[in-house]
Amino acid sequence: MPELPVISGRELVKFLESMGFRVTRTKGSHVRLRAEDGRVTTIPVHGDKDIPKGLLRKIIREDLEMSLEEFSGSYSRYKGK
């Protein structure tokens, strides 16, 4: 299993926007994003705090409908590694 990156909510929102997601609303410290194919996710943006590993894993598997390997590869390419 690939090691998940340590990522803040703000950085995850930017990454998802680069993947084609669009911000549909912001309520408090939570940002709601939707892709054209209907996938929807909510990302907590609590300052510069990192997203907990369990929540990140849930977002990747259930909301983004990606495997952990696909996400890690896409994020590495996004970061230029």
Q: Can you walk through the features of this model?
A:
- With 81 residues, the protein is α+β, with helices and mostly antiparallel strands.
- The chain has one domain (9-79): Metal Transport, Frataxin, Chain A (2-Layer Sandwich).
- Helix content is 41%, strand content 20%.
- Strands 1-2-3 form a three-stranded antiparallel beta sheet, covered by helices on one side.
- The chain is globular.
- The two termini are 19 Å apart.
- The model has no long low-confidence stretch (mean pLDDT 95).
Topology:
Layout: H1 9-18, E1 22-27, E2 30-34, E3 40-44, H2 53-63, H3 68-79
What attributes does this structure have?
single chain; 81 residues; alpha+beta; Metal Transport, Frataxin, Chain A; three-stranded antiparallel β-sheet; 3 helices; 41% helix
Give the overall pLDDT as a whole number.
95
Tally the beta strands: 3
CATH class: Alpha Beta
Beta-strand level of the residues, as a percent range?
A: 15-25%
- Unreliable stretches (pLDDT < 50, length at least 5) are none
Total DSSP helices = 3
Shape: globular
Q: What would you give as the CATH superfamily?
A: Hypothetical protein
* Class by SSE composition: alpha+beta
Order of helices and strands: HEEEHH
Portion in helices = 40-55%
CA-to-CA gap between the ends? 19 Å
Instruction: Determine the oligomeric state from the structure.
Output: single chain
> Order of strands in the sheet with the most strands?
1-2-3
For the sheet with most strands, the description reads: 3 strands, antiparallel
Cα Rg: 12 Å
Under the CATH scheme, which architecture would be assigned? Answer: 2-Layer Sandwich
CATH topology: Metal Transport, Frataxin, Chain A
Overall number of domains: 1
